[in-house]
Specification:
alpha/beta; 141 residues; 35% helix; CBS-domain; 6 helices; 3-stranded mixed sheet; 6 strands
Length: 141
């Protein structure tokens, strides 16, 4: 069993984009910040999450116009959260049960404080694993 907490391995810099942001703008923001996800907002409310994979599967593969289609059209609306004090084992269990690769991390007041990814958990569990190596590697662009 791991004694690491989600707070120990999460990314605390969350990028928020309004729901009306176009897909191409979001993709550029992801590239510039070297991230794979953004949190979509509707005013002060969390409205969903969009990942690089969502852009490929829900926009590009469906031949949507990425210059006019908004994040609202492709966002995953069901937000799966975990508390920052949960164990990394618990985070892995939730990911497995919910079939997701990322979890939003909240504090005791249910305020968003970060995101934990499958890659984050892999690096924490076994820094020498293949998944960890891939997650740590610089983009090959």
């Amino acid at each position: 069993m791991s004694s690491l907490k989600v707070r120990d391995v999460m990314t605390s810099e969350v990028v928020y984009l309004p729901a009306e942001t176009t897909i191409d703008e979001a993709a550029r923001a992801m590239r510039e910040r070297d991230i794979g996800d953004v949190v979509v907002t509707d005013g002060p409310t969390l409205a969903g999450v969009v990942t690089d994979r969502d852009i490929v599967l829900r926009a590009v593969a469906e031949r949507r116009d990425t210059t006019s289609t908004s994040l609202a059209a492709i966002a995953t609306r069901e937000l799966v959260m975990i508390e920052q004090d949960a164990s990394t084992d618990e985070a892995a269990r939730v990911m497995r049960e919910r079939a997701v690769r990322r979890l939003l991390v909240c504090d005791d007041d249910r305020q968003l404080v970060g995101i934990v990814s499958l890659g984050d958990l892999a690096r924490a569990a076994d820094p020498s694993s293949t998944l960890s190596d891939i997650s740590e590697a610089a983009p090959n662009n």
